Amino acid sequence: MADNKSKTMSTEEAGRKGGEATAKNHDKDFYQDIGQKGGEATAKNHDKEFYQEIGQKGGEATAKNHDKDFYQDIGQKGGEATAENHDKEFYQRIGEKGGEATSKNHDKEFYQEIGEKGGEARSRQNND
Q1: Does 69 score more than 50 pLDDT?
Q2: CA 97/CA 22 separation, integer angstroms
Q3: Which of these, 91, 24, 34, lies nearest to 42 by C-alpha position?
Q4: Which of 11, 22, 59, 99 has the fewest CB atoms within 10 Å, measured from its CB?
Q5: Cβ–Cβ contacts within 10 Å for residue 121, how many?
Q6: What does the angle CA 116 – CA 118 – CA 123 come to, to the nearest 5 degrees?
Q7: 9: Cβ–Cβ under 8 A, 6 or more apart, which residues?
Q8: Rounded distance, CA 82 to CA 91, Å?
């Protein structure tokens, strides 16, 4: 009698084979469509805290795998892409929003401290 256990495949192998077969039968538009549908379904079923939690987990995982140069590189690329797509008014609006949010969260002492640090750093630059 044949051993049926030797003919079964692992869940991992079945998933890989299914993924390969799907990739052969579908194009980029298919994946964009199912991705959008999945995103919409997820948004209906989860709240802000869910997205904050998965964002934090993703950020922590990314931080473990990348160094300062990685973040500088993606920051520069993001800044360049944003600059290509936005005008001076965009930056004024987001600067104003950031300033308003910061002023709600900090007191006079905070601004004195950062002003002092900035002055000291500037003084060191001028003396070098």
Answers
A1: yes
A2: 45
A3: 34
A4: 11
A5: 10
A6: 95
A7: 17
A8: 10
50, amino acid identity: F
Alpha-carbon distance 37 to 53, whole Å?
22
Locate all alpha helices (DSSP H) within 1-128, ordered by sequence: 11-25, 28-45, 48-65, 68-85, 88-105, 108-127
Instruction: Provide the greatest CA pair distance for the chain.
Output: 88
Could you say which DSSP state residue 6 is in? G
Per-residue tokens: 35: 């991705």
Query: What residue has token string 């084979």?
Result: 17
Q: How confident is the model at residue 8 (pLDDT cuts 50, 70, 90)?
A: confident
Q: Which two tokens stand for residue 53?
A: 């939690």
Q: How far apart are CA 90 and CA 83, in angstroms?
A: 10
Q: For 32, which DSSP code?
A: H
Give the residue-averaged pLDDT of 11-38: 94
Angle at 33 between CA 9 and CA 10, to 5 degrees: 5
* Residue that the structure tokens 């160094």 belong to: 67
